[in-house]
C-alpha cells in the first residue's frame, strides 16, 4: 500500500488548509478519497532557549518544556540590573528557569494569547517589597499602570532583550481574582483561592507535592492548612522538585520563600504572596513590607513576533 500524496512542511502561518487522503492497494487499486479535513496553522511562534519538546496537557492547555540554565537565558544580577531593580539582596543568581507553555484556553491565561513563560526556579532577590518591584515596572507586564500601584503610577513595561528575543518582565499571578476574595486567615482548600492562577496551574505541577482537598496537609508543611490554603491541583505532575529546589518552604530554603504575586488582597493595601509555608500556601502582606522572607521570582514572558 502506498500514499499518493505526502504532506509538505512548507506551510504558511495563520493559514487554513484542507487535506484528503486515499490509498492504493496491491489488489484493488485506489480507494475513494477521505472526507476533507481542515486545519489552521498557528501564527509565527517562538519558543526561545531550552528544549522545544513540550510535555503538553490538552485538557488544561498548558505544558512544560523543562529547565533552562541561567547561562542560556539570564542570571539574576543581570536581569535586575537591566530593569533597574536594586532593592533587596541578591541570592540564587544562577537558579535557572522553568519553561512553560500557556495556551489560549488555559485557565491561567487572562488575555487568550498563547505564551511561553520562563519562571525563575528560585527567588533571586529577597527582602524587597511589592512596591519595589512595581516601581521597576515589573509587576504586570501590561504596558499600563496596572490595577494597583505603589502610591505613584509607574508604567508596567519592563522588558529585556536576550539572544535576539524580547521578554516582558513581570510577576506571576497567584489568585483567582484581583482583589483576592479571601478574608484574613479564612481561605480553605475547597474555596480554591488560587484557581486559574499561574502559580496553581504551573508551579504546582512541577512540585513533588500534589495539593488536594481530600488531604489538606499535602503542600502545606508549615501548617495553616485550614486557613491559608490556595486550592487543589488540576492535572498530573510534569516534574517533582522539592521544597528547597523550588524554594517554597522557609524551613528548607530560608530567606525569600514568600513569593510576591500580582494581585491585591481582600485588604487592598496588601498583596498576594504564595509559598513560604509550602507550595499550596496562600496569604497577603502589606505592599510596602520589606521582610527578609519576601522574595522576587520573576516571570519572563517571551514576546512573540
Q: What's the end-to-end separation, in Å?
A: 42 Å
The structural class is mainly beta
Percent of residues in helical segments? under 10%
Q: Would you count the extended β strands for me?
A: 18
Strand content: 15-25%
Q: Count of DSSP helices? A: 5
Molecular shape: globular
Determine Rg (CA atoms, Å): 22 Å
Mean pLDDT: 92
Low-pLDDT residue intervals, each spanning 5 or more residues: 1-13
Give the spatial strand order of the biggest sheet: 6-7-9-10-18-13-12
Number of discrete domains: 2
Helix/strand order: EEEEEEEHEEEEHEEHHHEEEEE
Largest sheet: 7 strands, antiparallel
What is this structure, in a nutshell?
The chain is mainly beta and 305 residues long. The protein contains 5 helices and 18 strands. The chain is globular.
List keywords for this structure.
single chain, 305 residues, mainly beta, 7-stranded antiparallel sheet, 6-stranded mixed sheet, 5 helices, 9% helix, globular
Folded structure, characterized:
The chain contains five helices and 18 strands. The strands form four sheets. A seven-stranded antiparallel sheet has the order 6-7-9-10-18-13-12, with helices on one face. Strands 8-11-17-14-15-16 form a six-stranded mixed sheet, with no helix packed on it. It has a three-stranded antiparallel sheet with strand order 1-3-4, with no helix packed on it. Strand 6 (55-57) and strand 7 (62-68) form a beta hairpin. Helices cover 9% and strands 25% of the residues. By secondary structure, it is mainly β. The protein has two domains: 2-40, no CATH class; 55-302, no CATH class. The chain has helices spanning 76-83, 130-135, 198-203, 243-246, 250-253; strands spanning 2-3, 16-19, 23-25, 29-30, 37-40, 55-57, 62-68, 89-90, 97-102, 115-120, 125-126, 159-162, 165-170, 258-264, 270-275, 282-286, 294-296, 299-302.
Amino acid at each position: 500500500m502506498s500514499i499518493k500524496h505526502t504532506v509538505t512542511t512548507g506551510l504558511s502561518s495563520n493559514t487554513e488548509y484542507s487535506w484528503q487522503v486515499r490509498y492504493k492497494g496491491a489488489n484493488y487499486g485506489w480507494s475513494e478519497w477521505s472526507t476533507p479535513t481542515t486545519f489552521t496553522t498557528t501564527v509565527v511562534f517562538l519558543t526561545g532557549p531550552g528544549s522545544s519538546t513540550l510535555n503538553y496537557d490538552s485538557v488544561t492547555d498548558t505544558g512544560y518544556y523543562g529547565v533552562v540554565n541561567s547561562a542560556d537565558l539570564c542570571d539574576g544580577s543581570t536581569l535586575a540590573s537591566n530593569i533597574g531593580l536594586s532593592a533587596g539582596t541578591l541570592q540564587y543568581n544562577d537558579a535557572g528557569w522553568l519553561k512553560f507553555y500557556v495556551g489560549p484556553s488555559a485557565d491561567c491565561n487572562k488575555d487568550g494569547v498563547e505564551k511561553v513563560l520562563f519562571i525563575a526556579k528560585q527567588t533571586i532577590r529577597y527582602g524587597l517589597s511589592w512596591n519595589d518591584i512595581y516601581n521597576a515596572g515589573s509587576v504586570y507586564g501590561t504596558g499600563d499602570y496596572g490595577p494597583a500601584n505603589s502610591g505613584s503610577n509607574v508604567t508596567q513595561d519592563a522588558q529585556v532583550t536576550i539572544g535576539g528575543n524580547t521578554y516582558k518582565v513581570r510577576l506571576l499571578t497567584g489568585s483567582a481574582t484581583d482583589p483576592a476574595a479571601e478574608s484574613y486567615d479564612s481561605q480553605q482548600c475547597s474555596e480554591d483561592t488560587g484557581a486559574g492562577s499561574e502559580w496553581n496551574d504551573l508551579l504546582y505541577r512541577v512540585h513533588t507535592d500534589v495539593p488536594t482537598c481530600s488531604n489538606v496537609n499535602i503542600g502545606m508543611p508549615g501548617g495553616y492548612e485550614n486557613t491559608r490554603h490556595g486550592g487543589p491541583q488540576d492535572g498530573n505532575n510534569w516534574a517533582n522538585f522539592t521544597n528547597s529546589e523550588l524554594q517554597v518552604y522557609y524551613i528548607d530554603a530560608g530567606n525569600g520563600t514568600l513569593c510576591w504575586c500580582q494581585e491585591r488582597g481582600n485588604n487592598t493595601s496588601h498583596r498576594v504572596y504564595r509559598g513560604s509555608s509550602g507550595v499550596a500556601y496562600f496569604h497577603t502582606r502589606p505592599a510596602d513590607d520589606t521582610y527578609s522572607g519576601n522574595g522576587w521570582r520573576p516571570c519572563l514572558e517571551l514576546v512573540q513576533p
